[in-house]
Model the fold of this input.
Amino acid sequence: MTTAGQSITVTDLAPVLTGCHVCRSPLVDAINKKMKDQVPDKVISAWLKEVGHYVSRITLGKHKREHLTDPHERARIEATKVLKKQQGTIKVTGDLASLVRDYVHSAVQDGLMTPTLAEGLRAQEMIDRRQEKGADREVALTLASILGGGDARFQVLEAREIKEVEAGDE
Done:
């Protein structure tokens, strides 16, 4: 999905939050502190190996040059806050598909996201499949009721005229 306006999505956050091996480490704050305290990369790498989270000195050096900058740190902290806020707002109490549908519907209405045609068609296919399963269940229950000697209740469908399409009519 693409974003509209100034909203931040997980796609926008991904490069900041998953940029490198060090950024994904659970020890990223400790690593960054050691780097800011001028601890050599070899020493940090040896420490990480001891605690079971090995990262090479070359990767540490690249992280220091590319990600231990003020703009990147501010972006990472902001992205983490936004991601935690988004995770906190999603509470699954019922059907997850309905929750996602409602969330996406409100985001589209608010102009925060624009779904692609393929995504819309895929969602409609899932909804249709659910309705078909529900109809199949109803038929099975009706047949079981009839076979068990119960009342047969049928839904009457309205008949409509089917128009033929000529070769030039489209």
About this structure: Confidence is low (pLDDT under 50) at residues 1-11. The beta strands are 2-3, 113-114. The first strand starts at residue 2 and ends at 3. The first helix runs from residue 10 to 17.
